[in-house]
Structure formats: structure tokens, C-alpha cells
Amino acid sequence: MRWVDGKSLRILTFDIENRPLSYLGMDFTTGEITAIGASWDEANTVRVWLLGKHTLPEMLAGFLRMYDEADIVTGHYIRKHDLPVLNGALLEQGMRPLGAKMASDTKLDLVRSRYMSMSQENLGAMFGISHRKEHMSQVQWREANRLTPKGLYETRRRVAGDVRQHKELRRKLVEVGALGPPKLWRGP
After folding, report:
1. Which of 20, 43, 61, 132 has the greatest number of CB atoms lying within 10 Å of its CB?
2. Residue 111 maps to which CATH number?
3. CA distance 47 to 37
4. Torsion of CA 156, 37, 80, 147, to 10 degrees
5. Is the dihedral of CA 139, 144, 147, 152 positive or negative?
């Protein structure tokens, strides 16, 4: 937990997984959330919602409760991917959109640099982060996207692993002064 002006801040790290859903035309596809993982900064556990175990409205409502409690949300490329995808899903389900929130994005708020990958996996390896990116082959992704029991197991492992790796990576980036301040994300 971080303290600012004597107030403790609740920081929520999260990640989503999604699958292709339909074609829009010209090979552009729409998508659907298949997993949401979230963990408080001070917690060792990751809360995971899986499509196939939960309905999409249950997944979104569970995440929304945590999101509303957070002072800051954090993840890798969340302002351009995860947060807009979640808002689209909320809109489709007839639910209220995510409210404005301070967002720390370890891709978009990273110091400017060149000639290196800014993927979470690469940054984790570069900084010697103990939690590794959970790889999935095309065969595993096909199982995951079909929501089979084996696929759901792999999806859970992937989304929880990304959250764990991200929490450790973000702490390291803050420690070395390589991460800029959070920025306000306005959902609506």
C-alpha cells in the first residue's frame, strides 16, 4: 500500500485475456473477454474470473467492484487495450462503464528508449523478475478459446501469471526510476 499525504492508496494490478469473436470485414475481428485477473498491491493472491466458469456479466461485476475500490489501477498497455476492452464489454452487457481512474501503465508510462522490446515479458527478463510470462502455444490458445477444461486451466495460469509478473515488474521499474507517474484514464 502506498501513502500519499497521509492517505493510503489502494493499487489494483489487473490483466485480461480475450479471444476473437466475429469478423467486421477486411480481416478485422471483434473480441470477447475470456479471463480477468486482479490483485491488490499488498496481496499475494490473484482473483481470477474465467468465461466458462463465470458468465461475462459475473466477471465484469466482480472486477468492477475491485476497480471501484482502487485509487490506482496498473497493468501493461491497459490504457490502450485492457480498459477500453472492458468498457466495450460493459457497454455490450448494458452495464455502467468504468469511471475515471488514475492508471499506471508499464508500457505507456515507461521512460522513452530505443532498440529494445517493451513487452512485459522482455522487461521482466531484463530486470530478472522471478515471475515468468506463462507461454501458450497455438494449440493451447485454441483449447483456451474453446473454453475446454484444459484450456480454462491454461487461461487461469496465463492471466494470474501476468498479474504476478506485472506486480513485481512495476515495483522494480518504480525502484529504478524508469516509470513515470500514473495518468488519469477517462472511460466515458
Report:
1. 61
2. 3.30.420.10
3. 6
4. 30
5. positive
Nearest Cα residue to 120 out of 71, 82, 70: 82
Q: What is the DSSP letter of 132?
A: P
The residue among 82, 80, 81 whose CA lies nearest residue 12 is: 82
CB atoms within 10 A of CB 3: 8
Rounded to whole angstroms, the Cα distance separating 114 from 165 reads 23
103 near 183, Cβ under 8 Å?
A: yes
What string of pLDDT tens digits covers the 188 residues of the chain?
A: 454 555 689 999 999 999 998 888 777 888 999 999 999 999 999 999 999 999 999 999 999 999 999 999 999 999 999 999 999 999 999 999 999 999 999 999 999 989 989 999 999 999 999 998 899 999 999 999 999 999 999 999 999 999 999 999 999 999 999 999 999 999 76
Provide φ and ψ at 96, rounded to 5°. -70, 145
Assessment of whether the complete model's pTM goes beyond 0.85: yes
Number of domains within the chain: 1
**What's the CA gap between 34 and 51, in Å, rounded?**
5
Q: Give residue 51's domain range.
A: 2-185
The rounded distance, in Å, linking the Cα atoms of 170 and 160 is 15
